[in-house]
């Protein structure tokens, strides 16, 4: 089992722990805002479990049916995260609406607030772990989960302060207003996750800095060739796909052209994790004079 999958499994357990603590905090206080905080943690549990499944599928080796592998499975996980976030927000809005016309007494007891604060602290620490691991492994599923967790930490901190103020002032509807704000924050988080996931499914190109690195390595390692043109890149989860045309002298032996291609591929594989390179060799008559010049 790779590190991403291990972290994803641990994430499920931590999500269940945080959900349990936040629900206890809601039972101790009767706060709709804390209820909304707990409901968001239900989403965390569901998305953590989805991420485990997506990571397992995405790491399956390529086969005849999927010759480019299963890396895009992680984007489907991120889409599920976004949808679940939206569902949670709608559920919170429903509770706010019902509570506005039938308010319930608020008991912001110190034990209840302390339990919720402990759960928030656990989430804050775990967010840092998830984000670092997700970026290192280039995992959309883990990064999406980490970003959602960050919104949870921020909203939980705001809710804690607000519930304490509502209990101190006796303004019970402040609790409902806070719950509504949490729901709006969740919706924004869901939109961000969905937007990035759809972008990934549409074969988005690599970031500009990665593209510049790829161009430099091709120029440096293509000694003996004339130019490289029609460079294209795309990302699919942790995988990066690179293809381009390499122009060589018309009288160059196939073995020499192949050696240049091998050299370029080795250099790119050393610089870009999980890269798959496809090079189409062409004779000098195909040169376009506007590609990547060879150093």
TrEMBL record:
Membrane spanning stretches: 7-26, 32-55, 75-93, 113-131, 152-171, 177-194
Residue stretches making up the Cation efflux protein cytoplasmic domain: 207-284
Primary location group: membrane
GO-annotated cellular components: plasma membrane
Subcellular location: Cell membrane
Pfam families with a match to the protein in the record: Cation_efflux, ZT_dimer
Keywords per UniProt: Cell membrane, Membrane, Transmembrane, Transmembrane helix, Transport
InterPro entries, sorted: Cation_efflux (IPR002524), Cation_efflux_CTD (IPR027470), Cation_efflux_CTD_sf (IPR036837), Cation_efflux_TM (IPR058533), Cation_efflux_TMD_sf (IPR027469), CDF_Transporter (IPR050291)
One BP term from GO: intracellular zinc ion homeostasis
Domain Cation efflux protein transmembrane, residue spans: 10-202
UniProt membrane topology term: Multi-pass membrane protein
GO molecular-function term, one example from the UniProt record: ferrous iron transmembrane transporter activity
Family: Belongs to the cation diffusion facilitator (CDF) transporter (TC 2.A.4) family.
Protein name: Protein p34
Gene name of the record: fieF
């Amino acid at each position: 089992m790779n590190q991403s999958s291990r972290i994803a499994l641990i994430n499920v357990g931590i999500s269940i722990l945080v959900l349990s603590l936040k629900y206890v905090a809601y039972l101790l206080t009767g706060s709709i805002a804390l209820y909304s905080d707990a409901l968001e943690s239900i989403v965390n549990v569901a998305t953590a479990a989805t991420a485990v499944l997506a990571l397992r599928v995405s790491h399956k080796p390529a086969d005849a049916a999927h010759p480019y592998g299963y890396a895009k499975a992680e984007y489907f996980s991120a889409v599920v995260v976004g949808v679940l976030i939206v569902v949670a927000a709608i559920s919170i809005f429903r509770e706010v609406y019902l509570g506005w016309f039938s308010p319930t007494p608020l008991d912001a007891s110190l034990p209840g607030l302390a339990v919720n604060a402990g759960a928030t602290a656990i989430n804050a620490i775990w967010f840092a772990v998830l984000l670092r691991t997700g970026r290192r492994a280039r995992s959309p599923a883990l990064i999406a989960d980490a970003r959602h967790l960050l919104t949870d930490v921020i909203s939980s901190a705001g809710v804690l302060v607000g519930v304490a103020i509502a209990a101190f002032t006796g303004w019970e509807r402040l609790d409902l207003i806070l719950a509504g704000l949490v729901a709006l924050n969740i919706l924004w988080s869901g939109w961000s996750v969905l937007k990035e996931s759809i972008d990934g499914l549409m074969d988005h190109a690599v970031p500009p800095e990665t593209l510049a690195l790829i161009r430099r390595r091709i120029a440096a390692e293509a000694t003996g060739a004339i130019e490289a043109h029609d460079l294209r890149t795309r990302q699919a989860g942790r995988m990066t796909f690179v293809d381009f045309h390499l122009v060589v002298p018309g009288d160059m032996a196939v073995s020499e052209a192949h050696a240049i291609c091998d050299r370029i591929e080795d250099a790119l594989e050393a610089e870009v994790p999980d890269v798959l390179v496809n090079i189409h060799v062409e004779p000098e008559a195909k040169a376009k004079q506007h590609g990547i010049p060879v150093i």
